[in-house]
Amino acid sequence: MATFLYKLGRLAFRRRHFAALIWVALLTLAGVGAASAPVAGSSSFSIPGTEAQKAFDLLESRFPGMSADGATARVVFKAPAGEKMADKDNKAAVEKAVKVLGTGSEVTSVSDPFKTSAVSKDGLVAYASVKYEVSGMELKDASKDALKAAAEDARHSGLTVEVGGDALQATPETGSSEVIGIAIAAVVLVITFGSLIAAGLPLLTALIGVGIGVSTITALASALDLGSTTSTLAMMIGLAVGIDYALFIVSRYRAELAEGREREEAAGRAVGTAGSAVVFAGLTVVIALVGLSVVNIPMLTKMGVAAAGTVAVAVLIALTMIPALLGYAGRRVQPAGQKSKLLGGGRAAKKQGKPNMGTRWASFVVRRPLAVLLLGVVGLGAAAVPAASLQLGLPDDGSQPVSTTQRRAYDLLSEGFGPGFNGPLMVVVDAKASDSPKTVFSTVHDEIKDLKGVVSVSPAAPNKAGDTAMITVIADSKPSSVTTEDLVHKIRGTGADIKAETDATVLVTGSTAMNIDFSQKLNDALIPYLALVVGLAFLLLIVVFRSILVPLKAALGFLLSVMAALGAVVAVFQWGWLSSLMGVEETGPIMSMMPIFMVGVVFGLAMDYEVFLVTRMREAFVHGEKPGQAIVTGFKHGARVVTAAAVIMIAVFSGFIGSSESMIKMIGFGLAIAVFFDAFIVRMALVPAVLALLGKRAWWLPKWLDRVLPNVDVEGEGLRALEEKPRDGDHDRKLVGV
């Protein structure tokens, strides 16, 4: 592989106009496609195989036109101080709002609170339920604007009016996160390279790669049902890895120049060596993201595949466009150790200076490996302790900032009707196979009413055929609580008994039950997903490092960093530590997607640092250095670059902590802290400590396995043979006496 990539790098350097033109053309094509594509809403949401989804599907078939998964809104009204909702003026204002809401093009029904007894016992709070024919993710902006306008008009009458439900789902605001991340990345790159030109190359190629990826996702969003979250994830991952991959190749190019090689040769060798590491690092990220399909949640699968495509583009750009741009830059990109005139006066590299920080740190770890190993493991173990009390769930309106109308509506409903009113459970009774459906409906109603934790149960509402009915259940606890989850399981247990006696099927659905099933499906998929991703990456790393213990150590170190990161997430978002600093207004269960999402993304990114750092050690070892010295050599050339890459990635992810959406905020914090733990504790401390303790055994591989494995030559051993052979151009120049 190193030889092939070496030739590709030289070709891209020589044919720089052609290489650059291809990527500019692809960016233009993707941009035109995105601009001309129909506007797509958020992707539809389904969880195949769960009870909640089966109930939704049953309602669609037995209650045609009902739009069981359609968006809902609760317009909550509160009377002014000293007044009641039943007062003449207040009642007139509510009835007017109900009439206006019913005129919406996507509205299927609106309930009048005075006709449906939707007024609190104290007479201070009332609500109108609005049902739409499409889901909240697919609702048109015009319908959302009409909902907001109706609420605003009602406020003018003196009422307090807030809107809850999923009809007002909004695209999360991340503020200037991307700009902040790019700005910090630019500063780190300038410090690392000491050159504005060299620093600009990774930024330029990363932006082009993200532009192609996100534009392609936008162009295909309508056809493939891709939502805004898909492009956000692709941008987050693509920007981080795009900068990192280009950073490693440019850094290796400057190192090759410092060894006295010509620029074209240096570009070829940079792509042949660092480029090989980029390919395998990119493969681990792609495996981790595509592996999300194991969960069998279409939305998650699409997000993973789209982000994986953006990573693949980042790899290809790093291998082809970076050498092309290096050709354009010429002598403006200085050898390693030199700085540009602007930043350092064009100083030449010192031939014999003191060892750099990476060399000094690696030497210390090699001398004290056991102490470093124990300190690192104990530290990560302590950070992971909170993960033992991890509670999973999905955020609801109760976790929104208090400044939002959804949160204020949630609080008003809790005040007037109790906390469980914000997450009603919908029980669907399929009595088609029963001899007496009406008796079954009555039995289910009575059984549920007697369960502990139930506040109220609505009468059964059968369909026209009379074989299926809906029953609404209100719990005495808030939707995201463990108590409500237990109640759902109790109702389902009761349904199993009724099934045995009457052949009727009882299913529990609604947003609360859907969230519970979603969390359970993710929990069930975590172990198979972890086994698949880690297993495939383990095999890949065996090929890369030609070792058993190095990939095993990489996987165990990753598990340590992920557990520590989950512990930090629990401490902040569940326990409330440093919550004010992070802008967390409401603590609660950790988002159900967080563990499996962190496993996928962090594993791929962690293997980046493993591949880039350890391949340099492997290269030194293969070329004859002793194990301890190979570790020091690897850090001498790779520590500065890996540190810069980690800081850049942390900066990109940290920018999303400023999001107004708790889910995005949690993802940003989780990924940033995970990269910190993995890069600076696992890869920079535990990895050299373990390798120092193992010595030559770290690179042991059974002879039979060595014969079976393909030789991908990540270390660039095959390039030595090319060095000895005169190239065609050199031979021609000799013939003409040049």
Summed up:
The protein is an alpha+beta fold. Helix content is 63%, strand content 7%. Strands 6, 7, 8, 9 and 10 form a five-stranded antiparallel β-sheet that branches. It has a four-stranded antiparallel β-sheet with strand order 2-3-1-4, with helices on both faces.
- Major sheet description: 5 strands, antiparallel
According to DSSP, the number of beta strands is 11
- Measured as a percent range, the helix fraction is 55-70%
Oligomer: single chain
The N- to C-terminal Cα distance equals 33 Å
Report the radius of gyration as a whole number of Å: 30 Å
Low-confidence sequence ranges: 346-352, 728-738
Q: Report the sheet-strand fraction.
A: 5-15%
Principal-axis shape equals elongated
How many H/I helices? Answer: 25
- Kindly name the structural category: alpha+beta
**How much is the average pLDDT?**
82
What can you tell me about this protein's structure?
Strands 6, 7, 8, 9 and 10 form a five-stranded antiparallel β-sheet that branches. α4 runs antiparallel to α5 and α17 runs parallel beside α20. With 738 residues, this protein is α+β, with helices and mostly antiparallel strands. The longest helix has 35 residues.
How are the elements arranged and paired?
Blueprint: H1 2-14, H2 16-36, H3 51-62, E1 72-78, H4 88-101, E2 107-110, E3 125-132, H5 141-155, E4 160-165, H6 177-193, H7 196-224, H8 228-258, H9 263-290, H10 298-329, H11 341-344, H12 357-367, H13 369-384, E5 392-393, H14 405-417, E6 425-430, H15 437-449, E7 454-457, E8 461-462, E9 468-475, H16 482-502, E10 505-509, H17 511-545, H18 549-574, H19 579-582, E11 590-591, H20 594-622, H21 627-654, H22 662-694, H23 703-708, H24 718-724, H25 728-735
Parallel strand pairs: 5-11
Antiparallel strand pairs: 1-3, 1-4, 2-3, 6-9, 6-10, 7-9, 8-9
Helix pairs in contact: 1-2, 1-9, 1-10, 2-7, 2-10, 4-5, 6-7, 6-8, 6-21, 7-8, 7-10, 8-9, 8-10, 8-21, 9-10, 9-17, 9-20, 12-21, 12-22, 13-18, 13-22, 15-16, 17-18, 17-20, 18-20, 18-22, 20-21, 20-22, 21-22
